[in-house]
Write a structure and sequence with these properties.
By secondary structure, the protein is an alpha/beta fold. The protein has helices at about 30-50, 75, 120-130, 155-170, 180-190; strands at about 1-5, 15-20, 60-65, 80-90, 100, 135-140, 195-200. The longest helix has 19 residues, at about 155-170.
Length: about 210
């Protein structure tokens, strides 16, 4: 697991946003999560170091986590986060990436399992910490090729630029309340098959 924290050292470790990038770089399109991690991390550093009048500087405390898969230990890493955004490749056939609002599952969750689903992670969080999990979104990025040693497919490379823009906007958002507006704005900004779908309580937009 690779974890990077961008925060004011004078403040407690409470993160406005935690971005969790999942995937195996050796498995073709499954590597889109790590690829985005290695783009957003230097961008955040550059934004903070290059504080000039013509740049927007993220004032948020942001935590970035890169991992092969969701593991129970992540319950501790996201405990002090207001919002968690999970970025992962999807095997579902879809023309565009989409954002899903997650909730904890009623299904039984074993703490001994090595890898768990996003909903199970939130359920486990609730059991461990005896409180509601943070607001959590899952950014699905549809992939096509997941073979060992395969590169990112052209369609996923196309989505990569688009999703990087979305994540940068999220990092600059002054309040978690603005995220749904960001999701909606970015879905309506493109109308030629490279848009984003946002799913929340039955709402879908493409």
């Amino acid at each position: 697991m690779n974890k990077v924290q961008h925060s004011d050292t004078n403040r407690r470790e409470i993160f406005q946003y935690t971005l969790v990038f999942i995937g195996n770089p050796s498995r073709g399109d499954d590597g889109i999560g790590p690829a985005l991690f290695h783009e957003i991390e230097p961008w955040l550093n550059q934004q903070r170091l290059g504080q000039t009048e013509d740049k927007q500087i993220p004032s948020n405390d942001i935590q970035l986590i890169e991992c092969f898969q969701l593991e129970p230990e992540l319950c501790c890493d996201i405990e002090n986060s207001d919002v968690v955004i999970i970025i992962d490749a999807s095997t579902t056939k879809a023309p565009t990436p989409w954002v899903e609002t997650l909730s904890d599952s009623n299904a039984p969750t074993s703490i001994w399992t090595h890898a768990i689903s996003p909903s199970s992670l939130l359920t486990l969080f609730k059991k461990i910490h005896q409180k509601s999990p943070p607001t959590t979104y899952l950014l699905h990025i549809p992939g096509k090729k997941f073979g060992l040693g395969a590169p990112l497919s052209p369609s996923v490379e196309k989505h990569q630029t688009y999703c990087l823009c979305l994540l940068q906007k999220i990092c600059l958002a002054t309040s978690p309340k603005n995220l749904k507006e960001i999701f909606f704005d970015i879905t309506t900004s493109t109308s030629k098959g490279n848009g984003l779908r946002f799913e929340n309580e039955g709402f879908k937009h493409a």
